[in-house]
Write a structure and sequence with these properties.
By secondary structure, the protein is an alpha/beta fold. The protein has two domains: 77 residues; 220 residues, Rossmann fold (3-Layer(aba) Sandwich), CATH 3.40.50. 51% of the residues lie in helices and 10% in strands. The chain is built from ten helices and seven strands. It has a seven-stranded mixed beta sheet with strand order 3-2-1-4-5-6-7, sandwiched between helices. Strand 1, helix 2 and strand 2 form a beta-alpha-beta unit. Helix 1 packs across helix 10 and helix 2 crosses helix 10. The protein is elongated. The relative contact order is 0.12.
Length: 325
């Protein structure tokens, strides 16, 4: 018969073995892992500090470059748009700050601002296409014919553009008698608002894209509607630039990305995706000047941009040209 002493010794031996295992596990087995984790943590901390230093340096360089370009902007754009009238078009979600900064540079370039048109959310709402078509059919001149594939926004853009811009320098600054009621009708319908005298026609147009791409099930349609307006303004005037800050990757609700994906329109209408930067505002002026020469391009740093800004050239606009590019 196994006595009590044997049981006691056995139990003590078991607990002793467990204790030895725990000690060995925490010292011999886990120590290398702990040391390795500490080394990795130290390396990651060092890398983070190095990246922060690099980021601070890059941000400092960017701020310095922006300050230099802003100081040089008046001389960089002086006289580039003398004699031209520019229409400003704001869109739902666009930045007032970006528009005001661009407007200042356009004035420094010698342009006169004809006025500002602000498109409303109702204008872009697919549920409002019936209202758009109704106004277009009611107000369009008898000789205005639309392609069979034209969308409601294509038709509205064609009608509105005739009221806001012209290719004829002699008619710049004067209302279009054939479309005198168009602007007030669209305002009454809650589709747009105006500031200044945009009905006294401009020769060029700058449309400002929303700060953030549109979202939701109608995002792609809304972006496409703005591309239609930009295209209509370009056809009716001497040139149009769609300006904003595009995301680094193409997004369905981003009008600049949508424009660049429309190859036929992108051949005529210019986009600038750095309008929130001093260099981008200079690019807007150079792009308008390029439009006067009958050319277009996609500029900035986002997807689809071919260069930061256009090549500096001397514009050679033709008074008989029927399109901005």
């Amino acid at each position: 018969m196994i006595d009590f002493r044997y049981h006691l010794v056995s139990i003590v031996a078991i607990f002793l073995a467990l204790a030895v295992g725990i000690v060995l596990g925490t010292t011999l087995l886990q120590e290398p892992a702990v040391r390795s984790a500490r080394e990795v943590t130290a390396q990651l901390t060092k890398s983070k500090e190095e990246l922060r230093t690099q980021l601070d340096a890059l941000q400092g360089r960017e701020a310095g470059n922006d300050a230099f370009i802003a100081a040089m902007t008046p001389s960089l754009v002086a006289g580039d748009l003398t004699g031209q009238r520019v229409l400003l078009v704001e869109t739902p979600g666009s930045s007032t700050t970006v528009r005001e900064a661009a407007q200042q540079v356009l004035i420094q370039a010698g342009a006169a601002i004809s006025g500002r048109v602000t498109l409303t959310e109702k204008f872009l709402d697919p549920k409002s296409t019936g209202v758009l078509d109704g106004l277009v059919n009611q107000l369009k001149p008898a000789n205005m014919i639309f392609p069979a594939t034209a969308t409601p926004w294509d038709r509205a853009a064609t009608l509105l553009s005739g009221a806001f811009v012209t290719t004829d320098q002699a008619q710049a600054g004067t209302p279009n008698p054939a479309t005198v009621d168009i602007v007030s009708s669209f305002e009454t319908g809650g589709l747009l608002t105006t500031d200044g005298d945009p009905d006294k026609r401009a020769t060029l147009a700058v449309m400002f894209a929303p700060e953030k791409p549109y979202e939701g099930e109608n995002a792609e349609v809304q972006a496409g509607a703005l591309v239609s307006v930009a295209s209509g303004l370009d056809v009716a005037g001497k040139g149009t630039v769609l300006a904003g800050a595009a995301p680094t990757t193409a997004v369905p609700g981003d009008p600049i990305s949508a424009l660049r994906d429309e190859s036929d329109i992108a051949k005529r209408v210019t986009s600038v995706d750095t309008a929130d930067m001093p260099a981008g505002r200079v690019a807007v002026v150079y792009s308008l000047r390029e439009q006067l020469s009958g050319r277009a391009g996609q500029y900035g740093m986002g997807k689809g941009a071919s260069a930061m800004l256009p090549t500096v050239t001397t514009p050679t606009p033709s008074p008989t040209t029927q399109s901005g590019s």
